[in-house]
Amino acid sequence: MTEHIVSAYTDELEALSADILRMGGLAEAMTGDACEATVKSDDTLATMVVARDADVDALEADIERRIIEIIARRQPLARDLREVLSALKIANELERVGDLAKNIAKRAGVLEGFARRDVLKGIDRMGRAVTAQLSGVLDAFRNRDPARATKFWISDEDVDQLYNSYFREVLTYMIEDPRTIGDCAHILFMAKNLERIGDHATNIAEMIYFSVTGDYLSADDRPKADELPSPMDEGTPL
Amino acid sequence: MTEHIVSAYTDELEALSADILRMGGLAEAMTGDACEATVKSDDTLATMVVARDADVDALEADIERRIIEIIARRQPLARDLREVLSALKIANELERVGDLAKNIAKRAGVLEGFARRDVLKGIDRMGRAVTAQLSGVLDAFRNRDPARATKFWISDEDVDQLYNSYFREVLTYMIEDPRTIGDCAHILFMAKNLERIGDHATNIAEMIYFSVTGDYLSADDRPKADELPSPMDEGTPL
User: Fold this and answer.
1) How far is A231 from chain B (nearest CA, A)?
2) ipTM over 0.95 threshold
3) Can you tell me the distance from the alpha carbon of A94 to that of A103, in angstroms, rounded to the nearest whole number?
4) DSSP characters for A61-83?
């Protein structure tokens, strides 16, 4: 009987992990699709991304409900408790990724009439970097692999650098042609959203590391290029 | 002896609440001070805001550690468990508020040479609205008052509207004088950060409501003006 209970508990934890991976897969796909919809001006795809956010939200609510139940009924301790609480926080991060991807997709619709498609190459570049980061972090989660989590935690710096250089690039388009300022402001926010998705992936990497090892990845270990994205006062070298 | 244990538990929960309020007070002050540092170009104040973020982070880490301990040792159920898990999430939201305020303060430094001080009035306006929202939500938390939480949950709409109109206003400055584009892009991000602080206050209001009532505030109850901040294609009425 005890064995039966323990096995049911293991099943619950595995189902929880599986659903977090499903949420992560959805959020990753939404991010990639939102960028593709932007670059290809694909309104149908953008609409699909927006619609899919409800699925991510529903998954989060369901995961949260189950975690509260697990804590109440199973009263996990030590690593099990860390794992369950990390799952709660990871689901929360993924929900935010979904929100940001949805916001990018909505802005894609606004940009449909935007003629300077070349300006959007940076969205494609950042989108690829960020989805790769999300994908790596989700792998680390599936394998409970702190080394892999650390690797993709560090790679956030690359995303931050892409963001900083793209930010400056978009500003030059705005200065060259003030008629693009409205559209380019949207592009700046899209880029910022991608950079924030990278931050969420980084947060997830920290949670995996903590959940498995019980230690914290220290923010001091990694140069944080995005703390003040693109200082634009001309005197400051970037 | 049982009474002694129960009373120690109550003390733990009260200390937790007190520290969340302290974190909230810090985050609220940082938000207000970051805006004041921006408007008055006060570098000393901006530096203080940036330094204070470490206190907020340390408080969050401490609160999180204690919550994990409380769950492990006390194994709370039903409303107690909801309360403790809400505390975990509220501390997380407040940590993000601190980050956003720090980011505003850093940008304030970048804007020091910016001549068009009149453009910054909107930061003052938004800053006041957002700190009032934070303050109201923290009151609701202290009194475990779902009605008050709902009130400030609804008021996020006002912040979103302030943001939308300020966004358009800043764009007009950029168009009028392209030399301000770099600085104005920072101002757009500062405004967006304030709007996001409002979103975090709203999230906290939802958590208080859930913690006390066990029910969710439905997103359908509130028109969400910020989902696509300021559609700028000229054909769309704002």
Assistant:
1) 6
2) no
3) 14
4) HHHHHHHHHHHHHH---HHHHHH
